[in-house]
Amino acid sequence: MTPTPTGRRLDRDGRTYVEFTRTFRAPIDDVWAAVTEPDRLARWIGTWTGDPASGAVQFQMTYEGDGVPSEAFTIDECEPPVQLRITTSSSMEDGTTESWRLRLDLAETDGITTLIFAQDLPDPAIAENVGPGWDYYLDRMQVAESGGDPATLVWDDYFPALTGHYRAEFG
User: Where is the Activator of Hsp90 ATPase homologue 1/2-like C-terminal domain (predicted)?
Assistant: First the structure.
């Protein structure tokens, strides 16, 4: 099965983002918990450690294989349960640091919560890798939050199958 790519290009404030929308038949507080609480995150992407009140945590992806280093997440803005802004920092093999900005916005109407997630792309060419990755993880989130098993989703169905969409959207 080939999933449908859902990311679209968004240019805002001089930056290029890949943006995704997902809806959940759940109250906003429940979806907020799914993107902020370590045990809920662990079901679909990873977990964090540290004290968010300090303005930073260490995030660890748990579905990327062994040996993936944790990333520093700086919490730039947090307005529960509607808005979260994060800057990530990862040390690269060549000794440089790579940073991205993540934006999460949530809104609830009639028991349906909409999550809009975006990641900035300093180089739009990386969208062909980033886009399929977020489609995969956000689909895992939807499956987990609907009571299903996220392990039923297969990474190889997303990458490289969805790269053409992101090349065209960001080319």
Answer: 25-142
